[in-house]
Amino acid sequence: MEISMQKIREFHRQSIQDREGFWAREARRIHWETPWSKVLDDSRLPFARWFVGGRTNLCYNAVDRWLDTQADQPALIWVSTETDQEIVYTWAELAREVQVAAAMLQSLGVVQGDRVLIYLPMIPQAAFIMLACARLGAIHSVVFGGFAAHNLAQRIDDAQPGVVVSTDAGSRGGRPIAYKPLLDQALSQSVHQPDHVLLVDRGLVPMSLQAGRDLDYATLRARHLDVQVPVVWLESNEPSYILYTSGTTGNPKGVQRDVGGYAVALCASMEYIFGGKPGDTYFSTSDIGWVVGHSYVVYGPLLNGQATVMYEGTPIRPDAAILWRIIETHRVNALFSAPTAIRVLKKHDPALLTRHDLSSLDRIYLAGEPLDELTGQWLSEALNKPVIDNYWQTETGWPILSAQPGVEEVPTRYGSPTFPVYGFDVRVVSEASGLDSGPNEKGVVAIEPPLPPGAMSTIWRNDERFVTTYFESFPGRQTYSTSDWGRVDDDGYWFILGRTDDVINVAGHRLGTREIEESVNTHPAVAESAVVGVADPIKGQQAVGFAVLRDSALLDAPDGRTRLEAEIKKVVEQRNGAVARPSRILFVGSLPKTRSGKVLRRAIVALCEGRDPGDLTAVEDPSALEQIRGVL
Ligand code: ATP
Ligand code: MG
Fold first, then answer.
1. pTM for the model
2. Structure confidence by residue, pLDDT tens digits, 545-592
3. Residues 544 and 587 in one domain
4. Which of 93, 305, 476, 490 registers the highest number of CB atoms within 10 A of its CB?
5. Can you say whether the dihedral through the CA atoms of 507, 510, 512, 517 is positive or negative?
6. What is the total count of domains within the chain?
7. Burial of 417 (0-12, 13-18, 19+ CB in 10 A)
8. Which CATH number goes with the domain that contains 147?
9. Is the Cβ atom of 326 under 6 angstroms away from ligand 1?
10. Domain for residue 348, yes or no?
């Protein structure tokens, strides 16, 4: 085992010690219209610029580049078990739809640098518009369809899109979920107003169009058939997209990505991490509203000439074999999903796992939350396939810690995403001293700048927030903090031990507890609140709220407690979407806080989960914790 891990370690070492040499070699994977003059400009750390002066285009590399060799092979395989549709777009057909979409956007006045906000479910038009934006040098910002009006309005005001692309409805569990009324509501709340709203009419629910502003996708498409839109060659460091994180501070961060670095990093990751090659088929179950959807539904596979499966549906409908059926039908080589999806499958008949021919499938990748040992082992043994836990963030754009079978096969260990990925100089750092921690010592997982190609370049229009949010966590050291705890064992295997911040993960959806708290606090009866994520065997976590009322006498009224609880849940649902709805709202007289006024969420979570709340020396009023214990 010692000897077998030499290669992966050496590969990583090279990527850090000779950054420029390493990435110059990897950059040959993509087409550059104009070569770069410098691989890395690290003169203004923590800002890093990759492939300075080079000109390229994400859409050209993801689409046009493959037309000579594989025009008639599948490129985008769309499967919807929601509407019982399946469409396979070849590379030629994908190229055509992207050209048309680009012409449509151009006709609406979209030019390089403009923002286009995409509020769509998992339908092919979402990918067409993303790639069309990339072609034009317009900056897309995809907002997850599960977000409600308030979240959407915030993102519209921050990104200030000239065009918003949306639809009549998504669908979940076979039932349509209207999008247009939410969008209209968001636009009535936002200060910024787009010039145009482009609407894909799926015929799922009736929708009303606002004359002058709202346009029908199919009608506009018909006017631009067979138009050729030239590629806009962009300097490598121009922004390609903005993707908002869930937003712990209540004000989501617009993660800004570049063009050239992202193309190179993703293309390389398809081979080294995901073991893929042109002509293979890749299937990520992520929604396009999340970073995995950007990197591994749309860009990554296509940049490497691989077909991508875009799936609208759940893992259990029409039955819990659907993922495996898709893999069999389309000869999928790699599946990327989340532990929560697998935990859902675990509740169903295990025979469903072996009903289909999975001989095409090499490996399964899971990310987004800790992969518990039981789930990982259950899946791996049931399918007799390697299951690879990979750890990363919206900010990094691609995995930080992962097995890299395209570099070298190494033994994996359940509960560990194994080793640092090439390009990431990952450390475990002591929060108190700012020094690297030793083997087996818990600390914060941190990355020494420069961040590698493909990672975020900054926060949209807020360089200062980029520095203060990510690079000021450790005394005397400007190192990127992931805000996750971690540890490295004696053999060099990494373990992620949870978050230092307050984001929760409900069934694969990332929610900022602060955003939910803000919504709870809008209820007129509420003085303040704390929302925490409590472990849930199926969903990963569920939101539980603790509210302090302005007038506790309200609870004495008949049904007072139940009525208030229902009202508060409703407010959250309206503002943050149904996934954010807390499972319980409990009423207390005060919240446990530190002397500096920070709510002790970790202690509350511990109590909710029946664990020891740990060191409470910092608590201002210990009786507040007793109250929490009491209401539970
Ligand atoms: P925000 O940054 O707005 O607060 P978020 O951190 O929930 O939101 P993401 O960037 O999508 O949004 O999630 C990244 C986080 O998910 C990581 O920092 C980590 O906490 C968790 N995570 C991702 N993959 C893994 C994994 N394989 N094992 C453990 N945790 C993981
Ligand atoms: Mg985060």
1. 0.86
2. 999 998 889 999 889 999 999 999 999 999 989 999 999 999 999 888
3. yes
4. 305
5. negative
6. 2
7. buried
8. 3.40.50.12780
9. no
10. no
